[in-house]
C-alpha cells in the first residue's frame, strides 16, 4: 500500500491509499473531489473506500462527488457521526477493523476535536517498518486539534491512546500547521533542544514549499507539547502537575497564540 499525499483547499491534506497490484485506491478525508479524481485518472485506479475521520466539511466535502463517480465506493466514519457524514454506510467504533487491499486498520475512537472523531491505524506490513496513523484533526505535527465538541479530559485520553502506538509510526495529519505549531511549542517548552532543531528544519522545509507531513510519532512524543503533559517544564509554565489541567492550559495558550 502506497500513501499519496494530495493538497486541498488552503492547507488540507487528503491521503490516497493505493494498491498497485489490484489497481484500487481508498481515500482518507477527501476535503474536495477534484484532486482525488485527477490522481485516480492518472493511476487509472478505482476508488473502493472513503475513510472519514470526522464530519467537518474540510474532511468530507468531496464525498458526494466521489460517490457519483464511483457508485460502488464504501463510505466509512465513526458511529457517533451518524447523520453528519454525507453517504456514510459503515459506522465504526473503538476497536473496529477496516480492510483495504489486504491491509487491516484498527479504528481508534479519539473524541475531543469533535465528539465522534476516529483515527485509523495500519500496523506495519513488515516488522520494523513504519506503521501508518491517519488521525485527522486530533494529533497534528507539533500540535493538536482545537476542542470544538469535547473536553480536555476526552482529548487527553485520545492523545494518550495515540501516544501508545510505536515510535516508528507515520503521523498522517490532515493539515499543514506544523510551522505555527512548533513556533508556539517553543514558547512553552523552551529548553527542548530537539524541538528547537525541529523548528529550524521545518522553517527550511516550508521556505522551499515542502510538506512536513507525515511526521514520526517518536518525534511527536519528544517535541509536541500536547503529548508532554508530564514534563516538568510544561507543568512549571502551566503551574499545575495535574495532567488534564496542564494539557487544558497549554491548549488555552495555543488558542490565543
Ligand atoms: Zn476538523
Ligand atoms: Fe480540519
TrEMBL record:
Record's cofactor remark: Binds 2 Zn(2+) ions per subunit.
Gene Ontology MF term list: hydroxyacylglutathione hydrolase activity; metal ion binding
Residue sites binding Zn(2+) 2 per the record: 58-59, 137, 175
Segments traversing the membrane: none
Keyword Hydrolase: yes
GO annotation, biological process: methylglyoxal catabolic process to D-lactate via S-lactoyl-glutathione
Pathway(s) served: Secondary metabolite metabolism; methylglyoxal degradation; (R)-lactate from methylglyoxal: step 2/2
Positions of Zn(2+) 1 binding: 54, 56, 113, 137
Listed name of the protein: Hydroxyacylglutathione hydrolase
Organism encoding this protein: Mojavia pulchra JT2-VF2
